[in-house]
Design a protein that fits this description.
Length: 282
């Protein structure tokens, strides 16, 4: 672990590699990479020495909000590390990634804006968006408690007219953007690739709003709309949907081609319209 931390550098820049294993490139060529590169390399080196090890993905602790009394965990706090097995202790975590620079504003006023905005977001989702009487009552009490416990420097900013001249337009723009985001989230198809929507549109038995592709596929199998021997093809199709929607750097063109190959092999027993593959909708 000391070797990786001292001889390699942390970087989020992605190198374009063709036919080269990313871990091999990290260890012997670039010597810089993300936490995934550090974790994968440490696991590879430990396993090469016969030591049981496994990569782990999750999130770091996040940023502590002094005013709200909570941690803020963002997408940028996603992290990968290593667990090493010791016979008497079990799996012990190790982090080979060099200590990264802290995120956030460099100025006191900028940090104050960030902290206050996080508190506002918490109140918005907890006591406005849910919008029931109990949560609203708790919310108003907590707002009063928070304001009364603010440090003098924070109170100075809150009582300043200039602060509100800046914050009100920001809140207005944020609320407008939040409404648009909520409308998008409420659209249950917002994360489904177009090629999958085109495929399922050709099946007489439509997917329910609450169903994921995997649940939908299971229902197609249960109803014998798709033969049981094609269950593996449906599982592969669901995996491609996940890759297209949730992978950090999805190759959507490659995924689309792979999906077309799977769809061409899936036989639909009960259908009232033509089944289209992704390539037919380009």
């Amino acid at each position: 672990m000391r070797y990786l931390r001292s001889q390699f550098e942390y970087s989020l820049e992605q190198r374009e590699l063709e036919g080269i294993d990313p871990v091999e490139d990290f260890l012997f060529a670039s010597k810089e990479g993300s936490c995934e590169h550090f974790a994968s390399s440490m696991v590879l080196l430990l396993r090469a020495m016969g030591i049981p090890a496994r990569p782990v993905g999750g999130y770091t602790m996040g940023e502590w909000n002094d005013i709200g009394g909570f941690y803020t965990v963002r997408q940028r706090h996603a992290h990968a590390w290593v667990e090493v097995f010791f016979p008497r202790s079990g799996w012990i975590p190790f982090d080979p990634t060099p200590t990264a620079m802290s995120y956030g504003s460099d100025t006191e006023l900028g940090r104050l804006f960030q902290v206050m905005w996080e508190v506002y977001e918490g109140y918005w989702f907890g006591y406005v968006y849910s919008f029931d009487n109990d949560s609203q009552g708790v919310g108003f009490r907590r707002i009063a408690e928070t304001v009364s416990s603010l440090p003098a420097s924070v109170t100075f900013y809150l009582l300043s007219p200039g602060f509100w001249l800046l914050i009100i337009p920001v809140l207005f723009i944020a609320l407008l953007g939040r409404r648009r985001l909520i409308r998008r989230i409420r659209s249950y198809n917002c994360w489904i690739p177009d090629w999958y929507l085109s495929w399922e549109a050709g099946i007489a038995e439509s997917r329910a709003e609450w169903e994921t592709p995997r649940e939908y596929h299971q229902r197609l199998l249960d109803l014998e709309i798709v033969r049981q021997e094609h269950a593996g093809l449906l599982a592969g199709l669901a995996e491609l949907v996940d890759q297209s929607s949730f992978s950090l750097y999805p190759d959507r063109d490659k995924i689309k081609v792979s999906a077309a190959a799977l769809i061409s092999q899936i036989s639909i027993e009960k259908s009232t319209s033509t089944i289209h593959s992704p390539d037919q909708n380009r």
